[in-house]
Amino acid sequence: MPAAFARYRWCLLLLCAGPAHAQYDVVDQPSNLWLRALVDVRLAGGGPAPSWTDSGPGKMRYGGSTGYDRVTRVGLSQAALQVGATLPWDIRAQAQVNVEPDIAHGYHPWLIEAIVRKEGGDERRGWGIQSGVMNVPFSLENGGPAWTPEFSISTSALDSWLWEDISLAGLEGEWWTTRSGVRLDALAGAGYGGDQIGRLLALRGWVMGDTLGGINGNLALPGRPDRTDIFNERDHKPTVYGWLSVEDEAQIAALKVGVLDNQGDESARSVWHTHFSTVGLLLHPLAHFDVLAQYLDGVARVRAPANDSALSAFYALASYHYGQHRLSFRYDRFRVRDLDGGPSTNENGHALTTSYLIQLGLRSRVALEYVWMSSHREVFGPLNPTPDGWQISYRFRY
Amino acid sequence: MYRYKIIGVALFLCSTGLCAGAPSVSGTVTGADGRAIADAVVFVQGPPEDADRPRRPQMVDQVDKTFVPGLLPIVVGTSVRFPNHDQIHHHVYSFSPAKTFELPLYKGEEAPAVLFDKVGVVKIGCNIHDWMSGIILVLPTPHFAVTDGQGHFVLEDLPAGTYSLAAWHSLSKVKPEDTVQSVAVGAEAARVSFRLPLSVARTRPGVHGARAQP
From the candidates B127, B133, B177, B203, which should be mutated to test the interface with A, based on the most A CB atoms within 10 A? Predict the structure, then answer.
């Protein structure tokens, strides 16, 4: 938005000014308010099992019909609007609203982020305080514009869950420094709204997609008419989390460790006590290669019904990029293990993803992706899908 | 003894302004309040030089999500490279009329050089990191100088003659055309001072740390 606005402003100034004076027009200052948008449309084929978004057992965003037939779909996958402002004392305010019709079961806008942030220092040494509605910064893949995946259309099962199920209203502080060629970044935060983190994995299991959970949103559950709220606060105990990142100054390798505990009161009705830790590794071994690997391990417990589950997921991603082109391969492994012998939450699966992205100028991106997945969830019995799916995405960013 | 003779001759030449590299024009740039202005560019205003003439290439690096230098004055016809020494992608662009270009997502030194063949102000930015901004000031002649922290500038090696000097700053409220002063350069060093009213600097707060978008 600012760049485009600047272009038209320049044009206006050029029209108004004489040619002799046009060349050194006074430099326009950055606006205190900015706006960006992103629209992503998809052509997708998945299935044959209906997707979890349609309350089916399908593991990907786009699945088959209710009659278990393969279906090719065309639709809007995401419309995102980002608004930012510079407030006094150099405080940055930004908010993001998304429309994801198939996931939100309609065109309800979801509030993905609404924060104010104050930073001191610079890239090498500094601190930051942030408050508002936000996700946790644990995903290594959601580094694209408007928190979209950077390497593929769908993120790994691990990062898909981190972004769909966690949206907190809270406060976090961060400090970073660079010494002896090593950059250290430590972050700690606390927020409300995480009382049902983990319920989704116990009742639905891991999926792969690109859902961005909004604080006012809810998500479908397979075989159930009800949906699970993303923001849910019942016991008034905050979710606490921490994130530590260590990387070399040349940014060749980075190790990241995160922990989260929602401190859920297991004696309270419908409150889940979920805690997990995650460790991630980023490598840039060669100029055009990125390698990512991340592992998550945790437990989700609830008083009743007996759905206590152990959660684990892993992925490794290798990506080659040259200019506007990026080719990525990812291996996913995910598991849910029933801990209390009630209705089974056992699940076991793995997947392979291939994706190719091409950036067409400043605004457009075309992406292709193919996912093959083998997954078995005990309660689904013979309905277990062994799906493969493909997607073609056209994304326009303003 | 011979050494002292050489030093004596050198001192004589410098005192008479005949020594190569002697300051031709020096001076200061101050704000409306009289305070020194750093990073102002004082240049000889004149018809643009031949843009096809080969020039020494220049560079704007990208380090720690910052353009380095943030201001690069060049003479028209200069090519500028934009290496990215961060381990993340940048997407450099400009919509300025003096040069519209973009270098899509890249790392390292793979982006081709950009030729700046029109005089004017070229604002550059990164399509990913919205707080990154820089300016390439494309000047008509190679005779320019940037003020230091005390607002001082020195324009060296100007042949004798009369010149129109102009001053520019990214926050200046007046155009360089409206700052032009005529100055005669001869055997003695000339002095000139500029006064530029500046607007208040506005920057977009960056995001570093774990919340930064790569």
Answer: B127
What is the extent of the structural domain holding A12? Answer: 1-31
Residue A299 · residue A268 · CB < 8 Å: no
pLDDT score at A22:
46
Cβ within 8 Å, pair B208-A27: no
Which residues of chain A are within 8 Å of residue B61 when distances are taken between CB atoms? none
Domain that holds residue B114: 58-139
ipTM: 0.75
Same domain as A116, residue A25: no
pLDDT in tens, A123-160: 889 999 999 999 999 999 998 899 999 999 999 999 99
Please tell me which of the candidates A3, A27, A130 has its beta carbon nearest to residue B93: A3
Strands of chain A (E only): list them.
33-46, 71-87, 91-99, 110-121, 126-134, 168-179, 182-192, 218-220, 227-229, 239-248, 253-261, 272-283, 289-302, 309-322, 325-338, 347-360, 364-377, 388-397
- Give the N- to C-terminal CA distance of chain B in Å, as an integer: 65
pLDDT at residue A78 greater than cutoff 90: yes
Contacts of A21 in chain B (CB under 8 A): 175, 177
The minimal CB distance from A359 to the residues B87, B104, B205 is found for B104
Q: The domain that contains A337 carries what CATH number? A: 2.40.160.10
A10 with A88, same domain: the answer is no
Mean pLDDT, chain A, whole residue set = 90
Nearest to A32 among B107, B199, B202 (CB): B202
